[in-house]
Design brief:
Elements: H1 3-14, E1 25-32, E2 35-40, H2 53-63, E3 71-77, E4 81-82, H3 88-95, E5 103-109, E6 112-117, H4 118-121
Parallel strand pairs: 3-5
Antiparallel strand pairs: 1-2, 1-3, 3-4, 5-6
Bound molecules: tetrahydrodeoxyuridine.
Tetrahydrodeoxyuridine is lined by residues 19, 22, 24, 26, 41, 43, 50, 52-54, 86-87, 90.
């Protein structure tokens, strides 16, 4: 699996972040088969309506017909990128379409990233 390409896509998606309230820019990329779907965080003046980058990416993939996510990359930070993990809600949304061993990558750059797995980030996943 080409983690670097996925990281590059997340970094690029981060450039579109709409985050005037927090100043925290996040980009995400999900791999489905050989397709990559990206997302960025989209904030709102009614703060609670903000949507995370990861959920934007997952929902784009699913709404385009995908049902299996095989990897996720996240790149986030203020001015400077920092190791950013998905929030609890995003972990649960990913879990709907991914497996416990699905890699979740937190990236600072194409050459500086760490790979976790979804089951480690969200143990005892709820599903029906
Ligand atoms: N954010 C994400 O996009 N993904 C996460 O997993 C954590 C938080 C966004 C939401 C908000 O726009 C900003 O980061 C600060 O919380």
């Amino acid at each position: 699996m080409d983690f670097k390409a996925l990281v590059r896509a997340a970094l690029k998606a981060r450039e579109n972040s709409y985050s005037p309230y927090s100043g925290f820019k996040v980009g995400a990329a999900v791999l489905c088969g050989d397709r990559i779907f990206t997302g960025c965080n989209v904030e709102n003046a009614a703060y609670g309506e903000t949507v995370c980058a990861e959920r934007v990416a997952v929902l784009k993939a699913v709404s385009e017909g995908e049902r299996v996510i095989s990897a996720v990359a996240i790149a986030g930070g203020g001015e400077k990128l920092e190791k950013t993990f998905p929030c609890g809600s995003c972990r649960q949304v990913m879990a709907e379409f991914a497996k416990p061993d699905t890699p979740v990558i937190t990236a600072i750059s194409e050459d500086d990233f760490e790979v976790y797995d979804l089951g480690g980030l969200l143990p005892n996943i709820f599903n029906l």
